[in-house]
Amino acid sequence: MVAITAPGSIEQIPLVRYPKANADPPAVIPAIDLLAPGAAAAVADACGSLGFFRATNHGVPAGLADALEAGAMAFFAMTHQEKLDMSGPASPLGYGSKSIGSNGDVGWLEYLLLSVGNGSVVGSSLPPSLRMVLEEYTDAVREVGGRVMELMAEGLGVAADERAVLRRMVVGIDGSEEMVRVNHYPPCSCLLPPGRDCGVTGFGEHTDPQIISVLRSNCTGGLQIMLRDGRWVPVPPDPDSFFVNVGDSLQVLTNGRFRSVKHRVLAPEGMQSRLSVIYFGGPAPSQRIAPLQQVMREGEQSLYREFTWGEYKKAAYKTRLGDHRLGPYELPTVAAAAELAAK
After folding, report:
1. What is the superkingdom listed in this entry's lineage (predicted)?
2. pLDDT grade for 337, boundaries at 50, 70 and 90
3. Per-residue model confidence as pLDDT tens digits over 7-27
4. CB atoms < 10 A from the CB of 187, how many?
5. What is the DSSP letter of 127?
6. CA angle 273, 276, 278 (to 5 degrees)
7. What mean pLDDT is predicted for residues 234-243?
8. Most CB atoms closer than 10 Å: which of 4, 36, 281, 327?
9. Residue 11 CB neighbour total at 10 angstroms
């Protein structure tokens, strides 16, 4: 990795350059119609193999997503001080620019990170029109997440009367920790020497700690995921679809059947900004995170030691983005299996 300094547009900061994704033929990102027969099996297969898929036929009106995109771009066009005055500095909620968290991670972006529990945006003085569309959008995407979690449970073979087991941890529960992150990545092609096979980091590689993440972006690409063999592959943007990430907590809840996906964003190299909106579905801080009995086979042992969401979130805030956050919670059988697989 090579540190570089960005001139101008969003102040001078050190950035990190990564090699671009491999030039091999692009991986096929599973596309799943959420209302189609067989959707549950397809969701389970995608979450087990990649930890990631593209969701279509999701029911969120295109006009709602477009209105949020327009409102967010208008917000990010304001002066730095105006944005801070409206949202406060990110700690962790609020408006942030370049610094991601408090442990030294940086990227070529600015963002809003908001709590959206109980159907409202909490603790922010956003423009009323932006607040209103954010709340309406979050309500719609929350239902997408809930539907996906029910399909996940069905695909795992959970009995019909218990298929809301994952959804109930997030949707409609007092105290569940739902957040929305709005990321804005301005173009930075001026930073790149011609002909170099590298890109400027917009958001560094990481997994999401929550149960589920649901992302939508505009037409500008940059998102990449890591395959199981360690290759990075680009995810073509599709504003008409949502992209679903398996989070660390879901990996534990399924005892490793689903795997959280490592992903990152490279800053745009053309003339257009990238804007993405991510809904994070997290449980209440007291929620016990351990393999669900509904998915465990007779005699199957847990691969992870039990923790609460509050404990895991607190630990995650002390780490760097790229750290293996689940490592301290893996039982010795996991390390032994990984060592055996590497031989």
Report:
1. Eukaryota
2. low
3. 344 444 445 556 666 656 566
4. 17
5. -
6. 165
7. 96
8. 281
9. 10
How much of the chain exceeds pLDDT 90, in percent? 69
Q: Which residue has the tokens 């990545």?
A: 185
SS (H, E, C) the chain: CEEEECCCCCCCCEEEEEECCCCCCCCCCCEEECCCCCHHHHHHHHHHHCCEEEEECCCCCHHHHHHHHHHHHHHHCCCHHHHHHHHCECCCCEEEEEEECCCCEEEEEEEEEEECHHHCCECCCCCHHHHHHHHHHHHHHHHHHHHHHHHHHHHCCCCHHHCCCCHHHHCCCCCCEEEEEEEEECCCHHHCCCCCCEEEEEEEEECCCCCEEEEEECCCCCEEEECCCCCEEECCCCCCCEEEEECHHHHHHCCCCCCCCCEEEECCCCCCCEEEEEEEEECCCCCEECCCCCCCCCCCCCCECCEEHHHHHHHHCCCCCCCCCCHHHECHHHHHHHHHHHC
Is pLDDT above 70 for 340? no
* Torsion sign across C-alpha atoms 213, 309, 126, 78: negative
pTM of the model: 0.90
- pLDDT tens digits for range 215-236: 999 999 999 999 998 889 999 9
